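sorry for the late reply, my laptop died twice this morning and i had to redo everyting from scratch. anyway the thing you sent over, i finally got around to it. pasting the sequence first so we're on the same page, its 292 residues, then the predicted structure underneath. double check i copied it right bc i was rushing
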Amino acid sequence: MKILLTGVNGQLGRALRQRLEPLGEQYNLLACASRELDITDFTACRNVVSDFQPAVVINAAAYTNVDKAEDEPEAAFAVNALGAQNLALACRKIDAKLIQISSDYVFDGGGACGCGAKPYGEYDLTNPLSVYGRSKLWGEELIRDLGGKFFIVRTSWLYGDGPNFVRTMLRLSKERDQLTVVADQQGSPTYAGDLAAFLIQLMHTEYYGVYHATNEGSCTWYDFARQIMAYAGRSTTVRPITTAEYPVKAKRPAYSVLDNAMLRLRGFTPLRPWPEALAEYIKKEVTAAETI
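ok and here's the structure:
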């Protein structure tokens, strides 16, 4: 099976590459960074897809700087919306499957019931609060409008091989005795390796549509940070603060927990609980990289 992977230098892209490349007899992988395939260039997308003739395109490329997007909306929309459409158009031309990665930030944080306590289902009302969230939603809608063989997979609070919240907390814990972390935003930390494994299963199906895929369970950023310190054996104190005490340009949803309903209904194995995934990540990946 031929697979075209974009965004290979991102956390999810690296996780996918690590799983697919060793299976060279089963998969012929073309992994592209932005310098090798600029997804904002329709002609480039069309030519690469036409020449390689993949059965599946996994779009892990994204503009992910949530705060910077407030100042650079056109750049965010060019990658997250038009880039997604360009790949969808190229896939439709050769009847290839497209997996588009989206975000919990397409929701406004009120939860499925508006009470900030019920996880969002795949087809609950979207209402993004930020430029980043709107650009990801546009990408979803542009793909839907085209039709074809697509999977839209929303995830949240991703960490893996690259800069992320876990590594930031571990780095800061070496420098400070106390950290302050927001305690009034709730979501589901998701390990890129677990998400990659699910995407590989998904691409072999014809169960097209929208999916939520996160590690099971939820927590606040404060809870997440405390668990990181516990697993890493750090004595750094973590103090809870409110979102108002940590001002940023882009507004974040206060509650963005995703219900992985379609994943369960289609018979996929749920992603493991987030504390279990985090423990493995710290032990195997971060420990090796940072010698903690």
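The mean pLDDT is 94.
thats about all i looked at so far, will dig more tmrw
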